[in-house]
Amino acid sequence: MTRIALVLGATGLVGSALTRDLLGGNWDEVRVLVRRPFALEHPKLRQIQVDWDRLEQYSEQFAGVYAVFCCLGTTIKQAGSQEQFERVDLEYPLAAAALAKEHNVKQFLAVSSMGASAKSRTFYSRTKGRTEEGLIAAGFHGLHLFRPSLLLGDRAEFRLGERTAAVVMKALDFAMVGKAAKFRAIPAATVARAMMNIALADTGGVHIYTNEVIHVIGKH
Asked: What is the value of pTM for the model shown?
């Protein structure tokens, strides 16, 4: 069987780590949908420039794909408004899911967030929860939702709040045991490895991976 991966959000913190892992792993081809090309070359890599607001025009890129990895995500500050945030974190993932389902993609894996709930009072968590609900409704053979805590890694853009929080969380990591373990900051590379490991396991059904579980399955 030809194993093809499709990555959405390949230039982000988790997406970039995941793309490199996939290229070095047991995959025949790695397709990435990007707004603009980025500096990475590999015999297995196919970069496809897309207009995310017209994703349906690139439907053929989902053909023959075994697993879609959705690592799309932004912040309200970076997006500029709640409406733009919803477009990136809700509308784009669900549009991709519809195309994936249309082309019989077997596994769909998405980065969500700790605390995601469609009933949350917090706009961010509520939007993530709505995205999860939409992905579940799509009815994939295998749907895998990853809910990490604060992501650690070097971002292309500087986020003062996240940088400060990362320093504090690293300093307190030794104390994050028991019930506090679910709040431990987690390297983006660990989330990426967890996603790849789960995709290769070919597990059916809907699965939600909490932060402490991601720490374990993303170790190797």
From this structure: 0.87
Directed axis angle between helix 13-23 and helix 188-201, to 10°?
50
User: What pLDDT does residue 164 have?
Assistant: 43
Task: Match 């809700």 to its residue by tokens.
Answer: 90
Which residue is associated with the tokens 């970039």?
16
Q: Which two tokens stand for residue 85?
A: 């945030």
Measured over the CA atoms of residue 21, residue 114, residue 135 and residue 83, the dihedral's sign is negative
Q: What is the pLDDT of residues 119-134, one digit of tens each?
A: 999 999 999 999 999 9
Mean pLDDT of the region 92-115: 97
135 touches 108 (CB < 8 A): yes
Cβ(184)–Cβ(149) below 8 Å: yes
CA atoms of 110 and 8, how far apart (whole Å): 9
Task: Please report the pLDDT score of residue 1 as a whole number.
Answer: 74
Q: Using N-to-C axis directions, what is the helix angle for 92-102 and 123-138, rounded to 10°?
A: 10
